[in-house]
Prior knowledge:
- The protein is α/β, with parallel strands linked by helices.
- The protein has one domain (2-112, 173-271): Alpha/Beta hydrolase fold, catalytic domain (Rossmann fold, 3-Layer(aba) Sandwich).
- 35% of the residues lie in helices and 16% in strands.
- The protein has helices at 20-28, 54-66, 79-90, 110-122, 130-140, 188-195, 215-224, 240-243, 245-259, and strands at 2-4, 12-14, 32-37, 73-77, 98-102, 156-158, 164-166, 202-207, 229-233, 268-271.
- The strands form two sheets. It has an eight-stranded mixed beta sheet, sandwiched between helices.
- Helix 7 links the parallel strand 8 and strand 9.
- Helix 1 packs parallel to helix 9 (245-259) and helix 2 crosses helix 3.
- It starts with a strand and ends with a strand.
Amino acid sequence: MMLHLSCYCMVAVRHTMPGPSTALRLAEAGYLAIALDARGHGDSQWAADGDYSGDALVADLTCVCASLHSPPALVGASMGGLTSLLAIGEGPPDFARALVLVDIATRLEPEGVARVLDFMSAHTHGFASLEETADAVAAYNPHRKVRGTAGLRKNLRQRDDGRWYWHWDPRFLDHATRSSAGESLVQQERREQAAQGVHIPTLLVRGGSSDVVSAEGARELQKLIPHAELFDVQDAGHMVAGDRNDVFSNAVIDFLRRKLPAVSERATLLTL
Length: 272
């Protein structure tokens, strides 16, 4: 089922989790998983005004959560994690029931952030083939054990010129800054202030080989959210769920079973 929200909530909601294994595992565990395509990503519309700021992403998430029957648990990776952190830390206390951050924290390593942005910026001209895309991904992410073009079609669009382009709007990069603090989309000071406002069960799933969130960065997050749990996924980089999907799924389901049991009601997970 695809639900396209109108007005400024230009986001598409899919009743699946990224990765069939995780989706199946969550369903078997009794959870309803809804994957949110952020504005300018996936099947969502591109913003006519090019606004991909943190505030715009939080406003979209707030709109989607308001349409649900009860506050969800948020599972946010990278940009989705930043959006979730701001929405919960700066929003009302009942905004969400639990938070899972996937390789994102208040302290980001500038070298890792720069590498992500360099990879995104380097391929705005598209790829001649899916095979060329796979080679570029393999060079960027040597931790990924599964190679080839399987799954790439859902992340790219083939245009009239025959080239393959990432599905996200390149204007997103206009909001991704670089600095010695690894600012990325949201400034570190704001991330830290938001983290201090998070009082719901929280889990940080970190790629053990991530160059975006270091072990020190994970510990700093725990100082700001003392009740947060930390879980390192070995042999995984920034794209944790793609690198080690089974380990990632196990960690999330174990956390949810302890903090948000699905036996009494069909709890909703909103993944970003």
